[in-house]
Specification:
Blueprint lengths: L1 E4 L8 E4 L9 E10 L2 H5 L17 E9 L9 E4 L6 H5 L32 E5 L3 E3 L6 H4 L2 H14 L6 E5 L3 H12 L4 E5 L3 H9 L4 E3 L6 H9 L5 E4 L6 H8 L5 E4 L12 H6 L2 E4 L5 H13 L8 E6 L3 H7 L8 E5 L3
Length: 345
Amino acid sequence: MRAAVFHELGKPLQIETVAKPQAGRGEIVLKVHYCGICGSDLHSTHPGVFVVPDGTILGHEFAGEIVESGSPLWKVGEMATALPNNACEDCLKIGLMKCKDDMGIMCPRNTLTGFHPSAQGAYAEYVKFSCEEALRLPTAVKSREGAAVEPLAVGLHAVNKAKVALGERVLILGGGPIGLATAVFSKLAGARDVVVSEFAPARREAAGAMGATGVIDPSKQDVAETFARLAGGPPDVVFECVGVPGMIGKAVDYSHTWGRIVVVGVCMVEDAWVPMSAIFKETNIQYVLGYGRPDWRLVLDMLDSGRIDPRPMITDIVSMDELPSAFEALRKPTTQIKVMVRPNG
């Protein structure tokens, strides 16, 4: 099969012919219809605290058709997606295909699909995963929307951790896919004001289609003053969805006394800010990592019912041959938000 393979920092992904995965007991092989490019993929192929090994096939936001099943519960031809979790050696030794402690993505020994050659990802024509992590796509949910479940689940998980309540004011720093997913679920949670601060015009425009009640251009507007004008006061909750140095400090500055900050953005380098500013406000700062299986189930249910629609953030569909250049272009995005590859298209 064809796949996009990472080899070296500073070099683009290479399109290569590699062995097609085969389903063992309790495993599924999926023909990949769509796979999203995630910010974590970009981070893991850039100098920082974590770089994927040579030979890794990235890609953990995927959906498609089952072509081989090692489980009687899953049939060839069914449409599916899957959480990117993989059981560690301790769990496999006792015959389990998922975390024995039910920690999922939080397990420190978890190898995520698409981040190591031992768990190759879906920048490929086919991908393999455990049936324990698989989820069927409802009839109304097509593969393209199914491949958006993962980033949507991140936003849902962040909003749940923030305990966004009816009538609250929410400020979201960053209008990428995660920021937009956070906007969707903040609005559904009952937030009165959901304001997205974002430099890119295309992302500000998409924010309005995905739950935001207002947008801020931080290159031209003072974020705190503009938010107060739009929402009638400071934010009760600030979501940091950028992941660059200095953003947590900014979130503290924008927050009011006893405010809540949820750090969703993945910063892969050292950051420095003055904690005293948070101490004076008794700020509650919550970091989040990923999601759980219930988050994925709820996202699928809401996609099925039409209550959420990820299409405004899906801006680009590329072929396998176009993937390496599209991947590198996302390091400095312009009009792109969520870019998806069609490995078999």
